Amino acid sequence: MPVEMTRARFEELVSDALDLLPEQFAAAMNNVVVLVEDRNEEDPTLLGLYFGIALTEREPSNYAGVLPDRISVYREPLLEMCGSEDEVVDEVAITVVHEIAHHFGIDEDTLHALGWG
Fold first, then answer.
1. Range list of H helices, the chain
2. Over the stretch 33-48, which tens digit does the pLDDT of each residue have?
3. Which single residue of 1, 3, 51, 59 could bond 70 by disulfide (Cβ 3.0 to 4.6 Å)?
4. How far, in Å, CA of 90 to CA of 117, rounded?
5. Edge-to-edge strands, sheet with 32-37
6. Angle separating helix axes 85-103 and 7-19, nearest 10 degrees
7. How many Å apart are CA 66 and CA 19, to the nearest integer?
């Protein structure tokens, strides 16, 4: 049975997870927005997704005027996989860190090797 949680509370957990980032990482995040969505239509079990151009792949000469990168955190699958609010807190933090790592150019294999996969 999924954890029941208001959207506002879930958004607060995402904000709390962002607050846990070391200041140097938070300051280095550039042109990225973090959004809460209910579910990814293409993959309904997905917990989060990074859309954009990683910082390691951006070239100043052709990056001007680009819309912000987007990190989506998917509320419903996260609530469905957890058995308590404490688990949701942990999984939201893991998901946010995982997707922010993609913004910094860290690939899936590296994340899995580091235990963030």
1. 7-19, 23-28, 60-63, 75-81, 85-103, 108-113
2. 999 999 999 999 999 9
3. 51
4. 13
5. 32-37, 69-74, 48-51
6. 50
7. 26
